[in-house]
Each structure stands twice: as C-alpha cells, then as structure tokens.
Design brief:
Blueprint: E1 6-10, E2 17-21, E3 28-29, E4 38-42, E5 48-54, E6 60-66, E7 73-74, E8 84-88, E9 94-98, E10 110-114, E11 120-122, E12 129-134, E13 140-145, E14 151-156, E15 161-166, E16 172-176, E17 182-187, E18 193-198, E19 205-209, E20 223-225, E21 231-233
Antiparallel strand pairs: 1-2, 2-3, 4-5, 5-6, 6-7, 8-9, 9-10, 10-11, 12-13, 13-14, 14-15, 16-17, 17-18, 18-19, 20-21
Length: about 250
C-alpha cells in the first residue's frame, strides 16, 4: 500500500485477492471465485485496489474494489474493448490502460480514463503498446511495445514524445522507482535477472542475478517493488520427481 502498512496479494493458484498487514497478519478476503484478479494497483490514497481479470465474454476487463472489502465493479462496464493492466495517475483522478483484449495478442493502444468526466483519450503514438505504468511524479507513462522498435518506451507529457529506453533484452513487468528516476524490469530467460534503466538515458544495470531462480505465478512469472524499491518476486519452492513408466501391451 502507499503508506507501506499493508500488502495486497492474490493466492496462487486459487486466484483470491487478500489484504493483510505487511507482516501477513489479519488477512481480509476481498474477492471470490470465479473472479481472478491480475496485476494489482493500489490507489494513491490506499482506499481502492485496481486490477484486471478475464471477463466471462473472454475479454480482459479492469475492475476496482475497496481495500476495506465490498463488491468489485468494472471500471468501464459499457466499453467493448479490453482494459488490460490498468494503472493510476499519481493524483488518483485518472487511469491508463491498454486495449489489449486477450493477453498474448498485442494489437492494442493506450487510453486514459478521466474518472471525473468519464472521458477517454488515446495516448498519441501508442499503437502496439501494452503494460502501461504511470510514473509517481506524473510526468511519464512507461509501456512495452511489440513493433520493430519494441521493448521499453516512455511517454513524456511535457514534450509529448516517446523515447525508447530498452531494446537489447526481454523486458517484463516494468515498475517505476519511488523517485521516478528509474524503471525496473524483469528479464527472465537469457542471462536472467532484475535490471533497471535510468529515465535520463544509459544502459540497463543488473540489480539482482536470477540464474537458477524458479519463477511461478498466474503468468509463470511476476515482479514488483516494495516501498523501499527492493524487487519482489514469486518463487517456486516446490519439488520435482522423475518417473519411469513401463507399458504392457494386452
């Protein structure tokens, strides 16, 4: 949570959203099956939790629920497009989301919803973008791109221009540092690790070496940052067995 006192999490593989004290005590259940929350985002004032889920009609939908409990409700109930990976503006007055309808089909743009006026605008030049993240200082929106200049890009509201930040390695779960100076990301497969790149430019630097790390979760992997900008991941601590089967023909 923004004040660092609580943690929101989704149990895996059950898919139930909970809120608890940061030490895990006093858990409160916030959702029920079949709703399966993904990519949680606390509102800046800590009163609400934003997430996306697979709706019954097959599209990805954005939902919001009170952090105190209650019934989750769709952010845009009448919208026919997808609303994937929603993210709050720092003042809590707007939400940016991707129109990606099915996770894995990256033919989307980024849109911004004004919660007071209910107006929706398209972020210019965001064709093919997904996984948006609003910077804590409000100046930038980071996102992932799948085109020929793919990778991590940021939109600067002051210049109204996009900048390419990272293209040289796979980039997953971009996450802003609390001071808006860095974007952290997970690069899970080739030379795996958690990296960060400075918004002002430069090469990505390794923060955590993940060689031998076994990921798990609803997307097979996940990464976030705690209130001190320390990377948080989901680790598979289970065991594997190897079996040999002998078949007899009858």
């Amino acid at each position: 949570s923004p004040d660092g006192q609580f943690v929101a999490y989704v149990t895996f593989p059950e898919g139930i959203l909970w809120k608890a004290n940061r030490d895990g005590s006093h858990p409160v259940q916030l959702t029920d099956a079949p709703l399966y929350p993904l990519n949680l985002r606390w509102s800046p004032d800590g009163s609400q939790i934003l997430f996306c889920t697979h709706a019954p009609e097959g599209r990805v939908r954005a939902y919001v629920t009170s952090s105190q409990g209650g019934t989750p409700h769709p952010v845009l109930p009448e919208d026919k497009e997808g609303q994937s990976d929603p993210s709050w503006s720092p003042d809590g007055h707007k939400i940016v989301f991707s129109t990606l309808e099915i996770i894995g089909a990256f033919n989307s743009v980024l849109r911004v919803l004004d919660l007071a006026s209910h107006q929706i605008t398209t972020l210019p030049g965001s064709e093919g973008m997904w996984s948006p993240r609003w910077s804590p200082n409000g100046r930038f929106i980071a996102g992932l791109h799948t085109g020929p200049t793919g990778g991590l890009k940021i939109f600067d509201f002051e210049t109204q221009r996009w900048s390419v930040m990272q293209q040289t390695r796979e980039t997953d779960f971009p996450t802003w540092s609390s001071d808006s100076q860095f974007i952290y990301f997970l690069s899970p497969w080739d030379d795996p690790g958690v990296f960060r790149v400075r918004v002002s430019g430069g090469n990505a630097e390794r923060v955590v070496d993940l060689k031998g790390f076994r990921h798990t979760g609803a997307f097979t992997l996940w990464m976030g940052l705690d209130p001190t900008d320390t990377p948080t991941l989901i680790r598979d601590v289970g065991t594997d067995d190897i079996y040999a089967l002998t078949l007899e023909t009858k």
